[in-house]
Amino acid sequence: MNGQQERTGEGAEPRTAEDRDDTRADPSAAGGAAGASGAAVEPRTEVLPARADGAAELDRLGRRMERAVGGFVDDPRRAVKEADAVLEEAAERLARLLAERRRTLRASWHADDGSRADTEELRVALTRYRDMTRQLLTVA
Question: CA 8 to CA 19: how far, in whole Å?
Answer without folding.
Answer: 11
